[in-house]
Amino acid sequence: MNDVAVIEVGREAFFLIIIIGGPIMMIGLAVGLVIALFQTLTSIQEMTLTFVPKILAIFAAILIFLPFMINEMVDFGRLMFDRIIALG
Predict the structure, then answer these.
(1) What Rg do the C-alpha atoms of the chain give, in angstroms?
(2) What is the pLDDT of residues 33-61, one digit of tens each?
(3) pTM of the model
(4) Domain boundaries in the chain?
(5) DSSP code at position 47
């Protein structure tokens, strides 16, 4: 395996991380922004108000996107196994 192949595998793994984690992080960001806006408009500065809705939204997003994430990881694993077989 040469340097170009190693860099290609690293790039694909990094891109997979972005694809898998992106939707969940965006939902967490959107919920946090809505809560921050609500806190600013109502002058409520309760610390627990930010954590509970974010945790629930991220948990729901994980449940919704779990089949997609598993499919992406299985496809990447198959690609890696095919490359390992091609080497040997």
Answers:
(1) 19
(2) 999 999 889 888 887 888 899 999 999 99
(3) 0.80
(4) 3-87
(5) S
